[in-house]
Amino acid sequence: MTEAAPILKLARRLALEAGAIQKERYATELQIETKSAAVDLVTDVDKACEALIVDAITAERPEDAVLAEEGSGVDHPGAELRWIIDPLDGTTNYAHAYPRFCVSIGVTRNGEPWIGVVYDPLLDELYEAVRGEGARLNGEPLRVSPEKDLSHGLLATGFAYDRRKSEEDNLTQFAAFLKAARALRRDGSAALDLCYVAAGRFDGFWEFKLQPWDVAAGCLIVNEAGGRTSDTEGGESHWSGRTVVASNGALHEAMLDVLRRHA
Mean pLDDT throughout 213-231? Predict the structure, then answer.
């Protein structure tokens, strides 16, 4: 048993339990509110999943810090472990019964990404990774695609909640990649997009104005599947979510070049 095993077991259990709530309430009547913008939604299912996850961590590991999207986490400055939770990534999809959403749980140790778990309850796909130990999907090893030509690549992206007001709306970059790649997808869950890069379904992903809970698990899963993640300059600030680029590694510099030319 590795040092990460009990933490991974807990993260896996909580992801499955939160996913069960999502599956049970899928395509039912929801209580829907808005947050930062009219297109930034939160539902009673988001809140229920977050309460389940945060309450369990607080009860079982009270010394750990918790950062959760809906704000119920408790910080413990200097804590060795920090849990970074998106209880329902893809809320707009969920609110419309569009079947692309998941639970995302990341854990850092002394500030470094350590464990990532993402669960898609409708497909019953559990993605997980431990730093230095590889990535898995339902227990089977994950590996990024071997594609080396951007023009043959299938890429994914998303658009920020402030797109109605901000000129930094990703449309210029979307148009550039539309010309450069084979095809683009926009499925509305950054955590799943990252996992699809890890699984070789997508060859690359980029997005702006995300948050740590959107990327904490997924970026680690990409890295552990043999891919590469960075910010748009090739640096390490992507863990904040501000700018994120993920790829199979072979296409990374080509993607960064497109982003730099169309910044």
Answer: 98
